[in-house]
Amino acid sequence: MRINLASVLVDDQEKALRFYTDVLGFVTKHDIPMGADRWLTVVSPEDPEGTELLLEPSGHPAVKPFKDALVADGIPWTMFAVEDVQAEYERMRGLGVRFTQEPTDMGTVITAVFDDTCGNLIQIGQMKS
């Protein structure tokens, strides 16, 4: 068994696609119209056959209060691995990304948390050697 797909709930699929590709550097894997929404996935360019991230529309009534509560409490929805948190933090800040947590040493990892512009806080992390 392996993880094939993970989701992030986004309030605007087109805005999310621009952010996740243009800013984070993912590449589009699937973009299939499905009525008013799309089956829209992105992958890491380093692993194009790897785990897909579904940019899931957040239209269900339970989503907004759930996401609002996570953001209010500063809780990231998910985490992405990076080689160098400080370098990624500086690159992303240069692109205008708003961070809610600067790079922070957490013992075995260094993490930072940013706003994905689509209603989520996302954490990036680097394992320390």
From TrEMBL:
InterPro entries: Glyas_Bleomycin-R_OHBP_Dase, Glyas_Fos-R_dOase_dom, VOC_core
Residue ranges of domain VOC in the record: 2-127
Annotated Gene3D superfamilies: 2,3-Dihydroxybiphenyl 1,2-Dioxygenase, domain 1
Protein name: VOC family protein
Organism: Amycolatopsis thermalba
